[in-house]
Amino acid sequence: MPRLRYVFADVFTDTALEGNQLAVFTDGRDVDDATMQAIALEIGFSETVFVLPPESGGTVRIRIFTPFSELPFAGHPVLGSAFVLGAPLQLDVITLETGRGNIPVRLERDESGRIVFGRMEQPVPSVEPVADTAPVYAALRREGSELPVERYENGPTFILVAIPSEEDLAAMNPDTAAVAALGNTGVLCFAGSGTTWTARMFWSGGEDPATGSAAGPLACHLARHGRIAWGEQITISQGAAVRRPSTLYAVAEGGNGLIDRVEVGGQAITIARGELKL
Predict the structure, then answer these.
(1) Partner of 210 for a Cys bridge, out of 20, 94, 158, 202, CB 3.0 to 4.6 A?
(2) Which of 234, 225, 260 is nearest to 150 (CA)?
(3) pLDDT of 37-76, one tens digit each?
(4) Which member of 47, 97, 121, 150 is catalytic?
(5) Tens digit of pLDDT for each residue in 233-249?
(6) Is 111 assigned a catalytic role?
(7) What is the pLDDT of residues 143-171, one digit of tens each?
(8) CA distances in angstroms from 185 to 52, 88, 153, 181, listed in the order given
(9) Which domains does the chain have, with CATH numbers?
């Protein structure tokens, strides 16, 4: 009977039972595609990771599954996997091979050697305007955005919508069926000022507590539209509405509307280890 070892982590938090849940199977070599997908459905977290030997110069290769499909890249699975694997490998930088290329993650440790923070260099997203915003506003039950509504793609796809205030953001109650009808995209709604922002991300599965792959695009969006300076780190609070408070940090480097580099950071904590028997 095969036994697959796993680690459960909460990502973008240092507190158990907060942040975004992640399952990491540390040796996926003997697991076929169909079984990976079935395990992800069994676990039921937004993402489950399977670790494999590297193929293109990275430290390891990872495959990321939602309960229903495989993703080329996602933020909290990359950061969480780096925390899980970085401790036994004793590396300061771990490079994860993903469907969107190799993602380096710099790990910071305290005096005891414990990993306390990670910073991942994300794929630079593509950007395009959303030509027809009416379905987006209808799904959100909103009438407009404080900034241009644009679509960012860095593996997953996100539509960004600026909300006037954090109070308005907290009160949002989107039409979930209409959000799902927008297609294979998330809608990141955000409010704030300066370097402090709050976000809520709605998608066909509901609301995400911490969306690492959208944090980088948010920093890009704010810099491109003059709300922050290029190279300025922002702090993003997310997840309070679903009782999974999370904190993300993001920096976008560039200028003249062009994005050169994107980095997203945060913490993670291991909360369980075990074996799955098949």
Answers:
(1) 20
(2) 225
(3) 999 999 999 999 999 999 999 999 999 999 999 999 999 9
(4) 47
(5) 999 999 999 999 999 99
(6) no
(7) 999 999 999 999 999 999 999 999 999 99
(8) 28, 35, 9, 9
(9) 3-122+266-277 (3.10.310.10), 126-259 (3.10.310.10)
